[in-house]
Amino acid sequence: MNKAFLFVLLVSSFLPAISQKPLLDGFVFIKGDTFQSGDIVTDSIRNNVRVEDFEILDHPITNAEYKKFTDATGYSQPLHWKNGQIPEGKGDYPVIFVNRTDVDEYLEWISKKEGRIYRLPTTMEFEYASRGGLKDKKYPWGDDNPQGKANYDSKAGSKFDRWQEYLQPARSNKPNGYGLYNMAGNVWHLTVNLLDPAVTPFKYRITNVPTLEGSRMGGSWARGAEYLRCGNQSELSSGIRHPDLGFRPIRQPESADWRIQPRKLCAVSCGNGQVFISWALLKNDTKTTRFNVYRSDSRNHAGFLINTKPIENSTTFQDTDLTSGKRYHYYIRPVDNKGKEGQRSEWTGITVGETENSVVVTFKPVCKPGAVVPVFGDLDGDGTMDCVIRLGNGNYEMTQDPGIPVQMEAFSSYGRSLWRKDICYHDHCYGSANNAPFNVWDMDDDGKADVITRIQLGDSVFVAILDGMTGAVKHKTPWPDMATDFQRSSTRIHLSIAYLDGIHPAVITQTGLYENEVFVAYDSKLRKLWQFDSFAETNGSGGHKIEIADVDGDGKQEVFDGTTCLNHDGTMRWSIYRQHPDIVTINDFLPDRPGLEVYYVVESNAHAGAYMVDANSGEVIWKVNREDDPRWTHGHIGYASDIWEGSPGIECLASRAGHGDIKLVLFSAAGEIITEPFPRHTPIEWDGSPARELLIGNGSSIGKFDGKKVVEVADVQPNQIPNSSLLMVADLYGDFRDELVLTRQNANGMPEVVVVTATRFIGKAYITPTEDRDYRLWLAHNMGGGYPSIYYQELKTPSK
User: Fold this and answer.
1) Which of 358, 408, 489, 602 is most buried, taking the most CB atoms under 10 A from its CB?
2) What is the CATH classification number for the domain harbouring 41?
3) How far apart, in whole angstroms, are the C-alpha atoms of residue 102 and residue 555?
4) Residues 313 and 237 occupy one common structural domain
5) Distance CA 452, CA 465 (A)
6) pTM exceeds cut of 0.85
7) Residue 166's pLDDT is what?
8) Are 95 and 78 within 8 A, CB to CB?
9) What is the distance between the alpha carbons of residues 331 and 301, in angstroms, rounded to a whole number?
10) How many whole angstroms separate alpha carbon 452 and alpha carbon 467?
């Protein structure tokens, strides 16, 4: 994403309204419209495109205007300024010898300074402005010969080292029909090509593709007449500073809102010339919010409205009559009850295929065959889910050292590799990649998620915060020592994020599990807050993941050491002393009771069983365990979710006899057995009904529980990926429904992570779970913090 456009997304929401004399004079309002784009001489096909309203400076930025920026910020000055001074008599000349990075910094500065969004024009916006209201003409002034109308090289003899002889003032020559000077000639103008990053070739692992190879338009004093034509453009690498290269910004009109409201927009091909589009309903939307969908063949223009009337009671749309093999781009805008449109969403792109393809994105790490663990978060701050994958590389518990470390590889939301990093060797993670836990969360409130992990640096091991976009270490501190080395094969190391003070994120580490556990809390810069040692009566009570919840409603989150609950300050709140649970899940499971409950599936032989516990007090509400039924020997599998409308509250699943047990028991919220044996199906939100559906197997079909058995739903196949295995389900992209996160082997035997989504219109609209911080915290550590779990959240509609 171009830095200037990313700035629009991240910063513009809090730009202040500043009443002062503008730093730039001469902006012209351009009323948006549809026009035919392209060089009428060289482009055989000229497409109809649309631009929205904008304001553009009537001249390229001058030396005097640019100097206000360098004086205010100390930013480096153009190389032709001697001793920081503008060449004599050149204050009103275009600033030159600036590259795209310099321009991005200038635009960010002036946007913050003036409280309005300034950016470079897209190629379509520049072309539209340069035409000055004329149609089907070569140049901004018409079809006449450019001699005497523009500053260009008519004889192909201009030399770069003699630029002083050719450059003219910024407002030289006659303006075009919009009152804009030098839209052709004098200096090139930097413009933006909003490329689709999902299909743009990788270059040097740089993610900012438009900045790397940006466009320029308008020609210059050093170029011939063909470069002056409207619609003519060429590329220029972002780092180059030329004596014939300048820029002119556009800015947001006071009547417009250029801010981007991310909505997890998602598009997949349905075959037969159709595309399915879905997006998120946000908590600030209202009951009357409707939506418009726009489509374009390029992200450089505003596209065209494709729905005949605003979409209501749904956040999905089926686009039809499309050309197979062609790529289309979409965004959406909310519409209020008066018909006024709001902030647009991000773009999404899709190539129309011959057959249905429910794949949203495929992440392709380079690693040894074996386990991969994905965790999702927004690394680049654009509002969409990126992915960090832990690569086991053969580092499995109680196996020989493979000689390859546990690694991580980070990916953008469209599957581009951002970085990869060695994390830990076999002997420093107790033989298991699971002992290199990681979370993905924004620790410094900059809008971009970091990666928090246990990492080996040299011969020492640290808890570290890594930059999500680069993998560079931002903060580190030594990982706490193990309390005991009782049984290396049973050692477990976990990590999670909690809001202990209700405001700031903290890092919680757990070292040890089956004998003694050491919990340490750190602030967002890894300064130690407290430590808890679970010796004496609570030892061995830890779980396979650190769970977090605000159990007393004071806004401060408590920490769960398995069947023991710690206060936000690290003191023990309560413990049920039931030893080690395999499953711990916390939510408001019982609608008739105030507050939250904890559902446990306890492994330990003496106390194996299912428990429902008051999260605030530790009171055991109900239990079914070995004391009641000797068949309970090893509780291992379970979840709590609402899978049947015939029973109030949630249903609870548990296994009695370990990893291979297929005779699971389904309980009501009150602890009564509904049925047994119950199959190992995974709850999923798929059709918007009050109760969750059940994924059968790896998602080859969907079932619904009718109170006695699971009934398969006809003609529904969520997972269409052959030879794939289910890793987790979660709402990651598009509307409120869950996506399936799968793994499969490619032709080279290496694992891939594939995300698939629903492909059918649904006439329902619910707020996306990702609007809830607790849900996002669950996503941040679900796979990377220990055993994966199922998160249940009741479907919600806007409150107003």
Assistant:
1) 602
2) 3.90.1580.10
3) 43
4) no
5) 5
6) yes
7) 95
8) yes
9) 12
10) 9
Which residues does 430 contact at the CB level (< 8 Å), separation at least 6? 397, 488, 489, 491, 493
Amino acid at 732: L
Token pair of 510 as six digits: 């757990």
Residue 529: CB atoms within 10 A of its CB come to 16
Tell me whether strands 609-614 and 597-602 are parallel, antiparallel or unpaired.
antiparallel
Cα(567)–Cα(144) distance, rounded to whole angstroms? Answer: 79
Q: How far apart are CA 777 and CA 757, in angstroms?
A: 22
**Cα dist from 734 to 54, 194, 276, 332, 384, whole Å:** 30, 22, 10, 12, 10
Helix H or strand E encompassing 441: strand 438-441
| Residue of 705, 698, 711 lying closest to 756 (CA atoms) | 698
Instruction: Say which CATH number the domain at 311 has.
Output: 2.60.40.10
DSSP output for 590-639: -TTSSS-EEEEEE--GGG-EEEEEETTT--EEEEEETTT-TT-SB---EE
Pairing of strands 528-533, 327-335: unpaired
Q: Is 157 in the same domain as 198?
A: yes
Gap between the Cα atoms of 195 and 479, Å rounded: 43
Helix or strand (DSSP H, E) at 68: helix 63-73
Residues 33 and 182 in one domain: yes
CB within 8 A of 199, min separation 6: which ones?
327, 349, 351
Instruction: Please report the pLDDT score of residue 208 as a whole number.
Output: 52
State whether 44 and 163 are in the same domain.
yes
Neighbouring residues of 688: CB distance < 8 A, sequence distance ≥ 6: 736, 737, 762, 764, 766, 795
Count of all residues that appear for the chain in the document:
800
| pLDDT tens track for 448-489 | 999 999 999 999 999 999 999 999 999 999 999 876 554 444
Per-residue pLDDT, 201: 66
Q: What pLDDT shows up at residue 485?
A: 53
**Distance of CA 459 to CAs 123, 401, 433, 521, 731, Å?**
53, 16, 17, 23, 39
Q: How far is CA 550 from the centre of its chain?
A: 26
Q: 286: domain range? A: 264-356
Residue pair 319/331 in contact (Cβ under 8 Å)? The answer is no
Q: Which of 225, 249, 273 is the last residue of a domain?
A: 249
Residues of the chain with pLDDT under 50: 1-7, 9-14, 16-19, 204-207, 209-212, 486-489
Report which of 438, 363, 379 is spatially closest to residue 755, judged by C-alpha positions.
Answer: 363
**Between β-strands 245-246 and 188-191, what pairing exists: parallel, antiparallel or unpaired?**
parallel
The answer to whether residue 282 is domain-embedded is yes
Are both 54 and 94 inside the same structural domain? yes
Same domain, yes or no: 136 and 80 = yes
Q: What are phi and psi of 739, to 5 degrees?
A: -100, 160
DSSP state of 255: T
Query: What whole-number distance in Å separates Cα of residue 600 and Cα of residue 587?
Result: 12
Q: Are residues 331 and 208 in the same domain?
A: no
Q: Look at residues 410, 413, 388, 424 and name the one whose alpha carbon lies nearest to residue 470.
A: 410
Q: In this structure, what token pair is assigned to residue 706?
A: 């009718």
